[in-house]
Every structure is written in structure tokens, then in C-alpha cells.
Amino acid sequence: MKFKKSLVFIFVVAAVLVLSSGVMAQTYVVGTNASFPPFEYVEEGEIVGFDIELIKEIAKLQGFEVEVRDISFDSLIPGLASGSLDIVAAGMTITEKREEVVDFSEPYYSANQSVLVHEESDANLTVLFGNHDIGVQTGTTGDTWVRENLIQTDILTGEIRNYDSYVFVIRDLSNQNIDAAVLDKPVAETYSQNNPVQVVAEIITGEEYGIAVGEGNEELLAEINAGLEKVKNNGTMEKLIQKYFE
Ligand code: GLN
């Protein structure tokens, strides 16, 4: 009798576990670099911004949960490859080189690069020529652009300074420890609102941002694209653009 009761108990526990795992939403780890306002930044200890709201909205629509992690930009793609991250939402530009190692969603935002200098500087685009020091965030398209167009051509004879976070790029620029920074224009403009820095030139690179998943993760990519499509069609995208850019 006792034996029977415990069997029933085990059966009930097993049934509850099976049922709850069926209804419990899957949690995906989202990697970002929260020094990229207004796309991702830290406010009162929380990671917030356009991309964060976007991925949370997609998750809600598609029925999954997300846990957001703030790591250095150049660790995001390795994180997808190693499986420590499932998704990257980081204002990441879709490039051919990155396409070789990760898969991108449909594009959701377009941007160019820009040149940022101190607000009291009378520098213009020519700050990129000659003996000047230029700050970039490691692994970004701004970093690559400076290397390919200015360093390899000997146009820039000063240093390219690499940083793990734009927060430190902006700090060094505000302190005039570097002469300029090259970064995505919407972010440079956002920083210029609260820091003694100004955008003096735009570099037309025609970049498009995508949400990334591990190479070959077709199922998750389809979920993200489906959610993105809904966000674009149901007015949420428009609302996010108004909230963060207007
Ligand atoms: N859009 C740029 C890139 O993909 C910068 C992104 C970022 O620094 N978060 O490299």
C-alpha cells in the first residue's frame, strides 16, 4: 500500500514537472554593451534603451523571456559563438565579416559614422589627418573604419586609442586627452547633449543595425524576425523612435 502511494506521488510530481516545463517560457541571454546611448545605457543601475525595449517587446510578442548582460562590445560575437549568449542587441552593424560567424535579423535602424571633438575645439574633419589621437571602441565599425582608412593609408600619423567602453572614450575626449572620437552618429549626438563634446563631421558609411544570434540558430532568428515585423507593423517601432530620438 505504502509502495503504491509513493508511486502515485512520484507520478503526480512528474506530471506537474512535465506540464510546467511546457508552459514555462524559455529564457534567452541577451548580450549588449551599455555605453551606446540611446540604444543601450545604464540608468539608476539598470540597463535601458531603445534596443533593450525592442528586444523585450519582441520577447513579449513571441512568448519568451530575456536576461540582459552588459559586456564589452568585442566579447559579444565570441559570446554567441561559445553559447554564453543567445542574442546580441547592441546597435550592431550588419557586416559581411560578421555574417560569416553570426546570423543577423532583418535591419531595424540605419546610421553613419561621425567625428566627435571637444566642444571648445575648432577642429573639423581634418582632425583625422596628421598627428592627432583618435579614440574608438574596440571591435566596432568605427574602429575598423579608422584602421582601414586612416592608419593603413598613413593619413593619420598620431595614435588610434582603443577603449572597452564609449564611457571612457567620452571621458578622455571631455578631458582633452584625445583629439577626436569616431563613432556612430546617433550615439555621438546623444553624448553631445550631456558632455562637453560636439559632432563636427559625418562619415557616410550607410550602416544598418541587426539583432544577432549564433550562426545557424534558424529557429531563434525566425522568432526574432517575426517579432520585429510585428513591432514594425503595430506602431511600437514608431513609438520607440519617437521616445529615443525626437
Ligand atoms: N554600430 C557599431 C558596430 O556595429 C557600433 C556598435 C556599438 O558600439 N555598440 O560596430
TrEMBL record:
Residues 27-246 form the Solute-binding protein family 3/N-terminal domain. Keywords: Signal. InterPro entries: Iontro_rcpt_C (IPR001320), Solute-binding_3/MltF_N (IPR001638). GO terms for cellular component: membrane. The keyword Signal applies. Transmembrane segments: none annotated. Pfam families: SBP_bac_3. Residues 27-246 form the Ionotropic glutamate receptor C-terminal domain. Residues 1-25 form the signal peptide. The keyword Signal applies. One of its GO terms (molecular function) is ligand-gated monoatomic ion channel activity. This is Amino acid ABC transporter substrate-binding protein (PAAT family). The lineage of its organism: Bacteria, Bacillati, Bacillota, Clostridia, Halanaerobiales.
